Amino acid sequence: MALINEHYLKLAGGYLFPEIARRVEIHLSDHPEAADRLIKCGIGDVTEPLPEAVRQAMHRAVDEMGARESFRGYGEPTGYGFLREAIAKGDFQDHGLNIDAEEIFISDGSKTDCSAILDILAVKGANRIGITDPVYPVYVDTNVMCGNTGVAKEDGRYEGLTYLPCTPGNGFVPDVPGDDEPKLDLIYLCYPNNPTGGMITHDQLKAWVEYALKHKAIIFYDVAYQAYITEPNLPRSIYEIDGADRCAIEFHSFSKNGGFTGVRCGYTACPRKLVGWTSDGKEIPLHGLWSRRWSTKSNNVAYIIQRGAEAIYSPEGREQVQGLVDFYLENARILREGCEAMGMDVTGGVNAPYVWIACPDGLSSWDMFDRMLNQANVVITPGVGFGSCGEGFIRISAFNSRENVVEVVNRMKMLSSEKLGV
Ligand SMILES: *Cc1c(COP(=O)(O)O)cnc(C)c1O
User: Fold this and answer.
1) Is 115 close to ligand 1, i.e. is its CB under 6 Å away?
2) Measured from the CB, is residue 253 less than 6 Å from ligand 1?
3) Cys staple from 196: which of 70, 172, 331, 370, with CB 3.0 to 4.6 Å?
4) Which of 135, 136, 260 most suits a substitution to test ligand 1, by most atoms within 8 Å of the C-beta?
5) How far out from the chain centre does Cα 65 lie?
């Protein structure tokens, strides 16, 4: 009898986006004429085409693969040296951070890395895991799948995880646990944040690094939206904080800067100084385990894709990527300022491509979702879908055409001025 991994049966998830799709389908079957006017600002997927420098690099790589002298078979399990060198220099050393190419591990994106990293850590509740609420659902579901949680409760929270509330009260940055609270072993942080669009300060991040060092914890720091940081003096990397190379792994993705959501490439930085512990207290560098995990379980990402990613670090590539980021940030500004002008309470949209809006008139997330769908023909994401602390909020994504973003604001204005029935 073949037994399955029953942890998968605990997954409450797959709930949010199917439920959105279900409501959109009902709306469209009731109002077929609305189909042409429907604007989707829900899923966090980019809309603009790939930068030219990336496309050219991939074309050249395809041609290299077509000639015997330049053909390449298996690459290095942790990614080609040329890409790891470009990353170490461009993302770290040029910013005064001491990360080298051997500490970079290429992957097909952060989603993969989020689950793969759990391979090298103790599972089944051996680590106490801190997860922000609201949160990028991948962190939660990957822990459910490997048995790090109990079952889901009524409010969608899983037994066995420690939720760190992110609310207007703490500026959507979780407080470091007090001395009387249980000690966390693994901590997921994501700044700029999805879904709130909020950002963490140096001092706040320093407090987390100090906590991790004190309690021998590890921080998973997701910087998928690093390119969107516009305000000065905010931490671009956790390694800007002293000691973070002894307690943090950083997750990077080319999805949101280079438009790689369909191409697939990202990386982790895993410093050699970072250690974990055996149950009898022996210190083990994670670098060796992470290397071994890659060389055993993967032959990494296509050469062609890695050449495309390398091109992001060329002068033309940088300029084109900045163009994409600026475009989405301008969308975010239009959304944020438009909603603020309607008197709404808005977070995000300054250092991130998401705006996070407190629902007006005391509406719940799903009430507001329905109002936006039925009366404005706009699909947004209900905040409660990212966690119970997201109740009473919605997320609007700035990944869209300019035309659609302007139209969304106009429709919301009509909605708010007409005060259509709730
Ligand atoms: C989009 C996103 C990523 C990127 O995932 P990929 O698998 O690299 O496309 C990572 N983290 C967060 C929070 C995201 O929103």
Assistant:
1) no
2) yes
3) 172
4) 136
5) 33
How far apart are the CA of 352 and the centre of ligand 1, in A? 13
Q: Is 264 in the pocket of ligand 1 (CB under 6 A)?
A: no
Task: Walk me through the domains of the chain, giving residue ranges and CATH numbers.
Answer: 13-42+324-415 (3.90.1150.10), 54-315 (3.40.640.10)
| Residue 224 beta carbon below 6 angstroms from any ligand 1 atom | yes
C-alpha closest to that of 10 among 143, 198, 139: 143
CB 199 within 8 A of CB 230: no
pTM of the predicted model as reported, rounded to 2 decimal places = 0.97
Cα–Cα distance measured from residue 276 to residue 287, given in angstroms and rounded to the nearest whole number:
10
Structure confidence by residue, pLDDT tens digits, 203-222: 999 999 999 999 999 999 99
φ, ψ of residue 415 to 5 degrees: the values are -60, -50
Question: Which residue's CA lies nearest to atom 14 of ligand 1?
Answer: 224
Distance in Å, CA 194 to ligand 1 centroid: 9
How big is the CA angle at 228 (ends 163 and 309), to the nearest 5 degrees? 100
Ligand 1 close to Cβ of residue 108 (< 6 A): no
Separation between Cα atoms, residue 104 and residue 11, nearest integer Å: 32
What separation in Å is there between the alpha carbon of 331 and the centre of ligand 1? 20
Give me 79's structure tokens: 């990614």
Q: In percent, how much of the chain has pLDDT > 70?
A: 98
**Rounded to an integer, what distance in angstroms lies between the CA atom of residue 223 and that of residue 192?**
7
Interstrand relation of 283-285 and 345-348 (parallel, antiparallel or unpaired): unpaired
Give the helix/strand (H/E) hosting 79: none
Atom of ligand 1 nearest to the CA of 260: 9
CA of 378 to the centre of ligand 1 (A): 23
User: Tens digits of per-residue pLDDT, 22-60?
Assistant: 999 999 999 999 989 999 998 889 999 999 999 999 999
Tell me the two tokens of residue 265. Answer: 């490439």
- Supply 378's token pair: 């706009």
> d(Cα 382, Cα 89) in Å, to the nearest integer?
39
Q: Is the CB of 194 under 6 A from ligand 1?
A: yes
CA distance 258 to 322: 9
Report pLDDT for 18.
Answer: 87
Ligand 1 and 134: CB distance under 6 A:
no
Query: What residue type is assigned to position 143 of the chain?
Result: N
Residue 421 has pLDDT above 50, yes or no: no
